[in-house]
Amino acid sequence: MDLILYGNRESGHSYKVRLALTLMQAPHEYRPVDISLPREQRPAEFRRVSRFGEVPVLVDRSQVYVQSDAILLHLAQREHKLYGRDAVDHDQVREWLFWEANRIGISVPNLRFALRWLPDTPKDVLDWLRQRALADLGRLNDEFAKRQFLLGDFPTVADIACCGYLFWLDQAELDRDAWPNVSRWLSDISALPGWQHPYDLM
Ligand SMILES: N[C@@H](CCC(=O)N[C@@H](CS)C(=O)NCC(=O)O)C(=O)O
């Protein structure tokens, strides 16, 4: 198998990559990694390829790719899918991937993580994460008032990146119905052939 993905079922960053592989119909092998283990106790084959110690990692033949959004970009270029129509679209895909890495890919995942697994998180920290998440969801909600997907009437890896954690909004104690355009967009993503919920796919 040319493509091997290391991931974890609670990791939306891993889900983003597996969802892209699935929607692109790219044959791959999925190897789950137990990230509840200390890093030094994770399998040697994973530690060899995981430059930052994190999932996801994609191995494409002898080349290793880390950082979910960099992996998504690699896949879009490799498969010529979910990448938009032309160079202008490709630039916009990159812009959204950078936005995701600094905004919705930080706020919602960390809020969810703190609420689910870190009961001692100070209230100030939770409030800050929640405010960031509300701002980011509001930003997306405005976007989807104007168009079906981030770039237009077709999905790209930018949509896949931004939706990664949003099928778990309830676990971040956020109500999807508060952002109707986001909710509609998530439904449209769920309707794409091959889509599965993170817990089913991972
Ligand atoms: N910026 C990274 C974030 C990856 C990340 O945070 N991975 C988490 C799971 S979602 C992880 O591996 N945690 C275990 C650890 O850091 O040891 C990406 O987009 O791939």
Low-confidence stretches: none
Q: In which order are the strands of the major sheet placed?
A: 2-1-3-4
The number of E-state strands comes to 4
Q: Helix/strand/pairing class, anyone?
A: alpha+beta
Helix content estimate = 40-55%
How large is the radius of gyration? Answer: 17 Å
What is the global morphology?
globular
How confident is the prediction overall: mean pLDDT? 98
> How far apart are the termini?
18 Å
Helical stretch tally: 9
**In CATH's first tier, which class of the largest domain applies?**
Mainly Alpha
Strand content: 5-15%
Reported CATH architecture of the largest domain? Up-down Bundle
Number of domains: 2
Write the CATH fold name of the largest domain.
Answer: Glutathione S-transferase Yfyf (Class Pi), Chain A, domain 2
**H/E element sequence:** EHEHEEHHHHHHH
Quick one: biggest sheet?
A: 4 strands, mixed
Hetero ligands: glutathione
Structural overview:
- With 202 residues, the chain is of the alpha+beta class.
- It folds into two domains: 3-81, 3-Layer(aba) Sandwich (Glutaredoxin), CATH 3.40.30; 87-192, Glutathione S-transferase Yfyf (Class Pi), Chain A, domain 2 (Up-down Bundle), CATH 1.20.1050.10.
- It has nine helices and four strands, in the order βαβαββααααααα.
- Strands 2-1-3-4 form a four-stranded mixed β-sheet, covered by helices on one side.
- It is globular and about 45 Å long.
- The site of glutathione has 11 residues, from helix 3.
- Residues 11, 13, 35, 39, 53-56, 67-69 line the site of glutathione.
